[in-house]
Amino acid sequence: MSHSAFADRAGVIGFGPRCPAGALPIARHSDLERLKSQVSALARVGHDHKTLVVPGVPEAANSDQAVDAMVKFANKVGARLAEASR
């Protein structure tokens, strides 16, 4: 089974079996714990000390900047997952 990491427009990260409508995908992996570990290592922690947030998305002045931050984050997560799989 494949698991997904995704984020909403505010940059709040979630995990599930698929990316929900309206969310942007970050990465997919068969090992949920490995996926969470790699995403968590690069994400910021919210004010509640529980919520994971994509760096740069909450501060983005517009949707283009938010998407750019998401793409950079997704690329970094993908690289970490690939490295961890070697």
Q: How are the SSEs ordered, and which strands pair?
A:
Blueprint: E1 3-7, E2 13-16, E3 24-29, H1 32-42, E4 44-45, E5 52-53, H2 63-84
Antiparallel strand pairs: 1-2, 1-3, 4-5
Structure description:
The chain is an alpha+beta fold and 86 residues long. It has one domain. The chain has two helices and five strands, in the order βββαββα. The protein has helices spanning 32-42, 63-84, and strands at residues 3-7, 13-16, 24-29, 44-45, 52-53. The chain has a three-stranded antiparallel beta sheet. Helix 1 (32-42) crosses helix 2. The longest helix has 22 residues, at 63-84. The two termini are 20 Å apart. The model has no long low-confidence stretch (mean pLDDT 96).
Tell me the helix content.
25-40%
Structural class: alpha+beta
Catalogue the unreliable spans.
Answer: none
Specify the oligomeric state.
Answer: single chain
